[in-house]
Amino acid sequence: MRRDTRPYFIRRLRDSFSKWQVRQFLEPQFDSVGPGLDVAYPQGVELWGANIHAGSHLHLRAAKGNMIRLATWDSGDRVGEIHIGDFVLISPGNQIIASERITIGSNTMIASGCYISDSDWHDTYDRTAEQDKHAPVTFEENVWIGSRVIVGKGVTIGKNSIIGAGAVVTRDIPANVIAAGNPAKVIKELDPDREFRLRSDMLGDSEALYHEIDKLSRYLLRHNTLFTWVRSLIKPTRRD
Ligand SMILES: CC(C)(COP(=O)(O)OP(=O)(O)OC[C@H]1O[C@@H](n2cnc3c(N)ncnc32)[C@H](O)[C@@H]1OP(=O)(O)O)[C@@H](O)C(=O)NCCC(=O)NCCS
């Protein structure tokens, strides 16, 4: 498809159904979740285990064939925990899996296809057990994790820092830097005196933003009719 062929009212119906799915099936799976949870493709989000907490305005952007999985593991003597701050973005294909504790600071953005875990899950010599191959992972505020990054046990990523696409992060990364590579190393310093524009600046008034987006989609879909939409589903052309 080259464009959205749905009439505006079908799009609104779809959005309402999606919101209902989130309220009915996803929200109850969090131990706590703040207002403004916004989920694209809710059936592509899987929560597993206890102790999963999120603040306000969490945006989960799953996609067909690109699930988001947030999971905590119960090892018998300990249950993992995931703590997500406010205004966090988690993109398609992310796996965030805690044996001990993973903390994601407010305004953090995590791009597609990352694997973030606080455990190796198997001991070096006793492959049947985890032993002590786990340590908490912390992202401070306003961290940006690029596509297909892997973050391992015991890592702290400092405030405002960026991790370049494809990096493997095995050691702490300080605040206000860009780090990349395997293993990730600092490649640039950021200027901490410059003002950062944050997700919370954009989404703080989410009602107003929602109305603006709704107005835009009403305008963009204004020529779509039920007939052309159904026709595009059963007999698509190059213009659909
Ligand atoms: C990390 C990133 C933001 C840095 O961008 P930048 O500040 O413009 O950096 P530059 O392109 O100037 O690169 C600086 C150096 O780091 C290297 N570098 C940059 N990104 C790298 C990466 N992901 N892995 C390894 N090296 C990298 C460059 O090759 C360059 O090396 P050189 O000085 O030896 O030539 C960018 O490279 C990146 O990874 N972007 C992807 C972001 C993403 O995943 N977005 C998805 C949507 S959220």
Give the key terms.
240 residues; alpha/beta; UDP N-Acetylglucosamine Acyltransferase, domain 1; eight-stranded mixed beta sheet; six-stranded parallel beta sheet; 20% helix; globular; binds coenzyme A
What does this molecule look like?
Helices cover 20% and strands 25% of the residues. The chain is built from 4 helices and 20 strands. The chain has helices at residues 8-26, 199-203, 206-220, 226-234, and strands spanning 32-33, 38-40, 45-48, 52-54, 59-61, 68-72, 81-84, 89-90, 95-98, 101-104, 109-110, 115-117, 137-139, 144-145, 150-151, 156-157, 162-163, 168-169, 177-180, 185-189. A hairpin with a 4-residue loop joins strand 19 (177-180) and strand 20.
Q: Ions, cofactors, ligands: which are bound?
A: coenzyme A
Could you list the spans in which at least 5 consecutive residues all have pLDDT below 50?
none
Please identify, by name, the CATH architecture of the largest domain: 3 Solenoid
Helix fraction bin: 10-25%
Average of the residue pLDDT scores: 95
* Main sheet attributes: strand count, strand direction, barrel closure: 8 strands, mixed
Query: Beta-strand level of the residues, as a percent range?
Result: 25-35%
Number of helices: 4
Q: Specify the overall morphology.
A: globular
What CATH first level of the largest domain would be assigned?
Mainly Beta
User: Widest sheet: strand order?
Assistant: 2-5-8-11-14-17-19-20
Write the SSE topology.
Elements: H1 8-26, E1 32-33, E2 38-40, E3 45-48, E4 52-54, E5 59-61, E6 68-72, E7 81-84, E8 89-90, E9 95-98, E10 101-104, E11 109-110, E12 115-117, E13 137-139, E14 144-145, E15 150-151, E16 156-157, E17 162-163, E18 168-169, E19 177-180, E20 185-189, H2 199-203, H3 206-220, H4 226-234
Parallel strand pairs: 1-4, 2-5, 3-6, 4-7, 5-8, 6-9, 7-10, 8-11, 9-12, 10-13, 11-14, 12-15, 13-16, 14-17, 15-18, 17-19
Antiparallel strand pairs: 19-20
The site of coenzyme A (COA) has 13 residues, from strand 19 and strand 20.
